Amino acid sequence: MSQKDKNSILIIYTGGTIGMIRNSMTGALESFDFDHLIRHVPELRQFNLNISSRAFNPPIDSSDMTPEFWGRIAEVIYTNYDKFDGFVILHGTDTMAFTASALSFMLEGLMKPVILTGSQLPIGVLRTDGKENLLTAIEIAAAKHCDGTPVVPEVCIYFHHKLMRGNRCTKTSADSFDAFNSNNYPNLAEAGLEIKYNHAMIRPYVHNSVLALHKKMSSDIIIFSLFPGIQPRIVQNMLTGNELKGIIFRTFGAGNAPQEQWLVDALSEATDRGKIIVNVTQCSTGSVKMNLYETGLQLLEAGIVSGKDMTVEAALTKMMYLLGKELPIEEIRRMMKHNIAGEITVTK
Prior knowledge:
Blueprint: E1 7-13, E2 21-22, E3 29-30, H1 34-40, E4 49-55, H2 67-79, E5 86-90, H3 96-106, E6 107-108, E7 114-117, H4 130-142, E8 155-159, E9 162-165, E10 170-171, E11 180-181, E12 189-191, E13 195-197, E14 212-213, E15 221-225, H5 232-239, E16 246-251, H6 261-272, E17 276-281, H7 294-301, E18 305-306, H8 312-324, H9 329-336
Parallel strand pairs: 1-4, 1-5, 5-7, 7-8, 15-16, 16-17, 17-18
Antiparallel strand pairs: 2-3, 6-14, 8-9, 9-12, 10-11, 12-13
Helix pairs in contact: 2-3, 3-8, 5-6
């Protein structure tokens, strides 16, 4: 097979633990350099692939990730879309689920693999989880069906033997190699002796789909969690801010809130003034069902939108994306309940 016939993969290093390599002379951790990566992961040479790399300079700690950096990542993919068969993004774990969710909306019409991965230990450390995560992410990004279409034409996170839809993921552990879970959607693949794909759960390939880039994201949003004993003045002060356009409202159980008239009145007044409030459960698994109990029905009557089984990361970035498109408020409320990129389960 000639060089031009090989699948081409672009590795995009944004920052994070996986790209840190310990200098054997000084003992210091150094940032990503592709030549260093090849030296520490010589298995990369065994791939029958053309592998290229791009690196953010300086690298971004994932705690410093912003919508502007999401735009930079999306633009790298957009401008190189026709040159590569798949993309692997090396990213810090803390905000990886936010980035994966954001990219799933920003890259409309995506029909190539975009696989985010990282590690809990630097790739230059003996016990690193980064080597397996990187190698398998590349293999998945290059995987194709017999007809030449990609096996996974969507944004995903690969971590600790699991391939998960990016906008269905949440980081659930700070110190385990098994750091991410997709609680409300099945894994797209499991990597053991071989990679077993769950084809029925992967978004179908759409021929003649055209990639569109949406970089504008509105950050005039807040994530707000209920708790027992919450004070009226705190909620009222938050809801009356003119700059605030949307709220991801983290409620109890299946979307429930205290039966306090002041709370219902404050939420109703906010939605009447055009605030978009989306109800997402604080539970790690399950869905918002506001018509199930009186404590949820009151929110529905106050104009609160059901986030169903969306993750907080998906709900936040989806609202940022929709607000960035400057759509009418009622259209945004409608679209928040509508499936755009596989982020929500919509039942008929």
